[in-house]
Amino acid sequence: MRRTPVGRQTRARGIPEATVARLPLYLRALTALSERSVPTVSSEELAAAAGVNSAKLRKDFSYLGSYGTRGVGYDVEYLVYQISRELGLTQDWPVVIVGIGNLGHALANYGGFASRGFRVAALLDADPAVVGGSAAGLPVRHMDELESIVESQQVSIGVITTPPGAAQQVCDRLVEAGVTSILNFAPTVLTVPDGVDVRKVDLSIELQILAFHEQRKAGEEPQAEEEPAPSRAPGPVRAAAAKLRRAASGGKDVRDAKDTARDGKAEPRGESERSAVMPA
Fold first, then answer.
1. What is the three-state SS of the chain?
2. What is the distance between the alpha carbons of residues 266 and 222, in angstroms, rounded to a whole number?
3. Which residues, in sequence order, are CB contacts of 5 under 8 Å at separation 6+?
4. Is the pLDDT of residue 195 over 60?
5. What is the rounded CA–CA span in Å between residue 189 and residue 200?
6. What does the alpha-carbon distance between residue 98 and residue 100 come to, in Å, rounded to a whole number?
């Protein structure tokens, strides 16, 4: 009998998605306390360790039916069990990883899966140069074996670490084989049917967000410039800047408009110029 992934379990119990997303943070902090043999913890201490405010933590725990003891706090071991059970980590979850490049190898060798209730059931790839190799002691098998592996191992979670061009096709095959939860590391948006959960991990987006904060910490505010974006900016950024300049100048490049005005040769805009500033 195929098991129900944790996302649908918690939705059925009425636990908000935002709370579900914070449960692993609480579990990580509680596990660290347990390893130090700390018996109890206050909501303020646990909230600080998890990086949330204490009011939000108490609200989250109320969905689990755990309110703690006034003046004592929360029992650490009990909370570890309670959150682990809610997340479905008290059982074994077989996982398949598809795409055994550098990232796939790194994930296969990650030692934290087993201790958190996940077992890598198979490593899959379509490249003949990769198939037959191994990672973390597991053989890399061909994608042609996907369906039989999902059925025999009762796999409901798939991890995609392929290039973006292959991700949707791999996703479709996983879904058709019976996988209902997907962790996507490919830098692309996947389309899935109802009943399938997708979590996306995009390292480039996370780095861009960090760059935003670094810029603000350094006190560097983005400057509005008349000249084009610096040539070191990515191509799509330069193209977008040029489009904005054309729109702002009524369909002509800012520099061209300045040159024309300076020469006294400004011309009325025709229909073709107006259409150039219409949304694409």
1. CCCCCHHHHHHHCCCCHHHHHHHHHHHHHHHHHHHCCCCEECHHHHHHHHCCCHHHHHHHHHHCCCCCECCCEEEHHHHHHHHHHHHCCCCCEEEEEECCCHHHHHHHCCCHHHHCCEEEEEEEECCCCCCCCEECCEEEEEHHHHHHHHHHHCCCEEEECCCHHHHHHHHHHHHHHCCCEEEECCCCCCCCCCCCEEEECCHHHHHHHHHHHHHHHCCCCCCCCCCCCCCCCCHHHHHHHHHHHHHHCCCCCHHHHHHHHHHCCCCCCCHHHHHHCCCC
2. 32
3. 88, 156, 157, 180, 181, 197
4. yes
5. 8
6. 6
Q: Which residues pair with 201 in a beta bridge?
A: none
For residue 12, is pLDDT > 70?
no
pTM of the model: 0.67
Q: What span, in angstroms and rounded, lies between the C-alpha atoms of 69 and 50?
A: 20
**280 — pLDDT class (breaks 50, 70, 90):** very low
Q: Say if residues 119 and 92 touch (Cβ distance below 8 Å).
A: yes
Q: Provide the phi-psi class of 4: left if phi over 0, else alpha when psi is between -120 and 50, else beta.
A: beta
Q: Per the structure block, which two tokens stand in for 153?
A: 């191992």
Residue pair 12/63 in contact by the 8 Å Cβ criterion: no
- The predicted-structure confidence for 121-162, as pLDDT tens digits, reads as follows 999 999 999 999 999 999 999 999 999 999 999 999 999 999
With CA atoms as reference, report the closest residue to 189 among 197, 198, 177, 180: 198
Region at 154 (left for phi over 0; alpha for psi -120 to 50; beta for the rest): left
Structure-token pair, residue 184: 């996507």
Torsions phi, psi for 34 (to 5 deg): -60, -40
pLDDT of residue 231: 58
